[in-house]
Amino acid sequence: MEIIDMDHKGNGIGKINNKVVFVPKSILGDECEIEVIKIHKNYDVAKIKNITKKSADRIDALCPYYDTCGGCNISNLEYDKQLLFKLNKVKNIFKKYLEMDINPRVIDSEKKFGYRNKITYHYDNKLGLISEFSGVIDIHECLLVSDKVNNLYKKIKENDLSLVKLVTIKECDNGLILSIIGEMNIDNLCDLCIEININNKTVYKREDGFITLNNIKYMISDKSFFQVNTSNICKLYDEIVRYGEFTKNNQVIDLYCGVGSISLYISKYVKSVLGIEIVEDAINDAKENAKINNIDNVKFLCGDVSKLIDGNINGDILIVDPPRIGIDEYSLEVINKSKINKIIYVSCDPMTLVRDIKKLDNYELSNISVVDMFPQTHHTECVCLLSFKN
106-130, pLDDT tens digit by residue? Predict the structure, then answer.
């Protein structure tokens, strides 16, 4: 079968008897022998048995687990081709669902490998990463994390893991935070960590973890969310600053603010920032982060955005950085009626982004950037500027 296109998740697309077949790890221009592994009414899913003719764009992936691991899925493309894939993906989605022809600015990643500050391993008779097709694969190391993280992973594997379900490692500027779901002995791990949590309880702590961006120090805890590509966060947040064109008169609302990373980053440009976030640990970190950095023009509220948005959306500029599922219906309705001047929408899923933009029909798209926060994968981060139709 010839691969005639690629879908938004980086899978190759071919046809057998006019029925669409999705083939993970294949790329446009490949010719493959395939095995159909899942049959559906309108499409099938297959895996590559043999590549009979390689696409001109295909390269050999550096990772030895590429063919079986479910993590990286476009490592078989040169990096400039990965960026082109992501650009075209966003353009196609906006064209298909919003009938818009857009020309996004594309910002690459400083690091192509070793960029992730967080990784989760699963245990199923072995500790490793989720397979492309099923189960867990055992690995020696992951190329998306640092040597420091890989060394801790190898040390963990020396222990009895029979009662372990999940292992998460976060990398901070000053060390590693280890979180375990299940039970295991940690005596041989303390020297390699600044904090260890078992079943959401801290059992060892030497010091708080932190990451510094643009001279702002952020405390990182077990449960709070932080962008995973540390080396590229400033590029992402600088796009927010560029679109905001902030002044000292601006009152900004930051929805889904997490540990206050965006709120604190932009605080020096504006009069005030109000951040809202549902995760209590994240809000506690946000307040602590403001205190650590002596920033006094930010305020944080803990609660569901949909329940706190009424009465708290009084300002000039709104920043939204929702989870992958996007913004809830009620909040979209309130935002659309708010008449706030600018909305800066940060999205990790272009599909939910266009869905939400369609509902914000009192606003028009003024600008958009694609920022590569996830090299080697199909995942794509966008920053959009939406302006009120006055």
Answer: 999 999 999 999 999 999 999 999 9
| 49-62 exposure pattern, b = at least 16 Cβ within 10 A, e = fewer | eebeeebeebeebe
Q: What gap in Å lies between CA 24 and CA 75, rounded to an integer?
A: 12
Model pLDDT for residues 34-64, shown as the tens digit of each residue: 999 999 999 999 999 999 999 999 999 999 9
Q: Per CATH, which fold does 1-58 belong to?
A: OB fold (Dihydrolipoamide Acetyltransferase, E2P) (2.40.50)
pLDDT digits (tens, 9 = 90+) for 289-317: 999 999 999 999 999 999 999 888 889 99
pLDDT at residue 92, as a whole number: 97
Task: Return the CATH architecture of domain 118-211.
Answer: Beta Barrel (2.40)
Report the mean per-residue pLDDT for the chain.
95
- On the question of pLDDT at 133 being above 80, the answer is no
Structurally, at CATH architecture level, domain 83-111+228-388 sits in 3-Layer(aba) Sandwich (3.40)
User: In the chain, where are the structural domains located?
Assistant: 1-58, 83-111+228-388, 118-211
Q: Give buried/exposed letters for 241-272 (b at 16+ CB in 10 A, else e).
A: bebbebeeebebbbbbbbbbbbbbbbbebbeb
Which residues share a beta bridge with 50? 33
3-state secondary structure 115-129: CECEEEEEECCCEEE
